[in-house]
TrEMBL record, chains A, B:
The lineage of its organism: Bacteria, Pseudomonadati, Myxococcota, Polyangia, Nannocystales. It comes from Enhygromyxa salina. SUPFAM superfamilies: GroES-like (SSF50129), NAD(P)-binding Rossmann-fold domains (SSF51735). This is Putative NADP-dependent oxidoreductase YfmJ. PANTHER family: PROSTAGLANDIN REDUCTASE, PROSTAGLANDIN REDUCTASE 1. GO terms for molecular function: oxidoreductase activity, acting on the CH-CH group of donors, NAD or NADP as acceptor.
Amino acid sequence: MTQTTTRVILSKRPEGLPSDDNFTIEKAPVPEPAEGEVVVATKYISLDPAMRGWMRDAPSYVPPVGIGEVMRAGGVGEVIASRHPKFSVGDHVNGLLGVQTVACVPGDGLHAVDPSLAPLSAYLGVLGMPGITAYFGLLEVGALAEGDTVLVSGAAGAVGSIVGQIAKIKGARAVGIAGGPDKCRHLVDELGFDAAIDYKNEDVAARIKATCPDRVNVYFDNVGGEILNAALTRLATGARVVICGAISQYNNLEEVKGPSNYMTLLVRRARMEGFIVFDYAERYGEAFRDMGGWLTTGKLRYRETVVEGIEQFTDAFAKLFSGDKLGKLVLKVSD
Amino acid sequence: MTQTTTRVILSKRPEGLPSDDNFTIEKAPVPEPAEGEVVVATKYISLDPAMRGWMRDAPSYVPPVGIGEVMRAGGVGEVIASRHPKFSVGDHVNGLLGVQTVACVPGDGLHAVDPSLAPLSAYLGVLGMPGITAYFGLLEVGALAEGDTVLVSGAAGAVGSIVGQIAKIKGARAVGIAGGPDKCRHLVDELGFDAAIDYKNEDVAARIKATCPDRVNVYFDNVGGEILNAALTRLATGARVVICGAISQYNNLEEVKGPSNYMTLLVRRARMEGFIVFDYAERYGEAFRDMGGWLTTGKLRYRETVVEGIEQFTDAFAKLFSGDKLGKLVLKVSD
């Protein structure tokens, strides 16, 4: 019996915020798996800021998605056919399934996940790329030390919310920057941040000064733009600025705004460093072991925003940029 | 007998390029040295881009020069009176003497120099702050490795010219960015750089691409602005960007231009790091030993531009920004 997949194709590269004009949704038969391939019924699709970069025809750490190709995305699902020795029908897997309801993909790119240990969607968030991005970004690139003050932007998002919590677990202070009073309350009251800054309603520079009296040892940046610039002015000597993303700039139609205060790196003998979490692939096990333990003991909490239906892809994706979501944003494709 | 000093006082903070309006030149009696102080007859005054920062009323790694105070500057001279046990009349010393012909200063801030080993002015350049800035900036902050491609801006200047030569000594490729064909020829023909880029007459981005086919492992930045931005686009994976200065921005009347291409730090897993050479004070000996050896064996060459007369201070200082000089710029005060 031939399976049918509903898939979202990149039909035109976006300028600015992607809209329905940039994608077509089509139905297509799922091919029979070749040797080494696995057919997966998608349950949840991950919506990540990095996907905006993949839509751009520019050199980066991975090739852009081609026009006419299925939009690239991480996902979790259930194996419904397999010609790969590691996977059997009924297994649950995580990998680059693309924005489609059924995926026929090489098994070598998939990882088995256990739905009895955590909800499937958690493998796209706290136990997935956002979680390990927070983990290695803060601990390795940020070289976190006990007693540090950690400032994180996009703090109510999938990565930022974990950065702040790991900081607390490791004996640092955590201050988060997020949009709106609800998110700020969530950071402090539910996630245990020491303070939160509402960039939509407060003077960010003044609030960083007030909430980080000993200056900032690690600034974990997910947003770029004026918030990065403000954070740079309050770096401590020897500070580390972790460049994880720049969501404020991804849909910019003009030139990206560079951090005009970058010379504080000199005055403060500080460094600004970028990273790609894939470079830590051999050490993912460490992160999953620690994060799993913290989840079990309740030290680490997470929230997610679930949008239902693959045809909602464009609207759901836009929530990453409008901020109209909390924690990890996922698209639910099937039960 | 009371000595008289001619001294340059900061009378008004400059906006943009400093001019004679910002300084007054006055004669004053030299005080009798107190216990621990030394009176020095200045021979050469160092003119450095960092001095522009010291004229600004903004927090930095040292306090600003106050209005009405002698302009801060490094210098070398001869001891003419001493109440410090380490220094005797006739000794030659290096330290923050200020822009004045005779300085009465604490002896603890001075270092003895030997005019029989190198010309006195060399202790302000290759054997002074510019030399050790190049040395620790390239080898420590830049973490130079054999086979690296090193790109340096301000390459015909006091620091940049040494950066490129140390790169060559250590088995790396050196490419310099400088203003005008004469400086570029000097870099390649006299200092042994592999290639030079004339930012005044060439397309910098295109020339970086052409001269650094394996991309850039270390970019040593003295200038900031558009050249920094161009260099960022050609970083190699794991590259180090050493922030030493931003001379293109120091006299800016508008907001500093931040590097809009900073997100290449993420794509290339690269870091951008600032430093202050004073932090390496305990290791200066290493640098002076290596640099002295390279000078003796002719592996390291230097040039200087000498302006005569303390009353020429403002005009001479302006040459740092106009580029109308080669190598280390010094003001000669007396024979």
